[in-house]
# Entry
Amino acid sequence: MKILLKIIIFLVLLNIIIFEELYAKEKIKIGLLIPISGNQSNIGNSVLKSVRMAINKIDNSNIEILLKDTKNDPLKTFKSAKELKEEGVKIVIGPIFNKNLIYLEELEEMIFLSLTNKNINKPKNIISAGINASSQINTIIKFQKLNKIERTIFLIPNANFKDEIENGISKSKIKLKYTHFYNTDPTLLTKQIEKITNYSIRKQNLKDEINRVEKSNDSNKIKILERLKKKDTIGGINFDSVIIGDFDEGLKSVATSLLYTDVSPKRVYYITLNQWFDKSLLNEITLHPIYFPSINKNNYDEFYEDYKKIYNEEPNQLSFLSYDLVGLVYYLIYKNNYKINEKIFYKENKFKGKIGIFEINKNTINHVLNFYKVEKKEFKKIF
# Structure
């Protein structure tokens, strides 16, 4: 009986070893669906180079990257995706742009890790891997709590990404005093900010106070008037922080309008969304300090230097994300016993990449981000 039991145990162990060897020898096929020709090919080729860097870093000869061109066209994307399917690919990094997702729902047995940060109105087999609004707003909530910020207003441009911001606000349940959608037309923007900040009332308060002091018999009248005439407004504002959901010149225009209405970053917290360490913000000293959630800057700088050293060019921001996605896919396949199926992104998992921590649950990716401020021409990490 004991001999029979030993034989059974031996056979079971032998089968396990054979099973593992088979998986070890089997190629792990990962599709890469990016524009390598046509418009946006510069972004696609930067992503391709970063993927090659990641493969070299992992150093596993069983990983096979199958590249297909999208030409940044939805129909070409679908055709290329079908070709990947015919080659046995079940999981794909890409497409990059949201517009190229529309036909991929038909390939329901495949999983696409798109680099977009848009989470709404996407096919079920698409997982948005970009840094979405929910991840950013959750990081802002942490900053609110640390600094006991209780009266936040959220200014959102009437732009094509406003729905994503609204969705992020809803999912994160951030505490806000109110939200306001503004017209990005520069000729209308300042008037909108004036209304939001009660600028005309506070301006009139100053005029009334100057008039009152001038008519008074106060012994310190001259000094009081000198002090008043250095002010732009008098009176409180009904918020202690403002989140500006904009980027580049749009962000600067809103912040400049706030300054014009006598609401400076010394008076309220200026907070915005991920700026990817836009260096132009370093020179906007009048807007400092300005706060934002973002990826890990030290890791980003390290990747940037490595990429530049290898390819003698600067990487695109999305290439940093794609670098991490290769590692993430490999990690999840390993955790799933080298099986690629619908459960791979459904189980709750955490993965620490260069960007930061990826949180995966129920076919959704969120990022645990860091928080920074721009002050005195430097990016400074808060947490």
User: Anything to note?
Assistant: The chain has two domains: 28-131+297-367, 134-295+372-381. The two ends are 63 Å apart (CA to CA). Residues 10-14, 16-24 have pLDDT under 50 and may be disordered. Residues 28-131+297-367 form a domain with the Rossmann fold fold (CATH 3.40.50.2300).
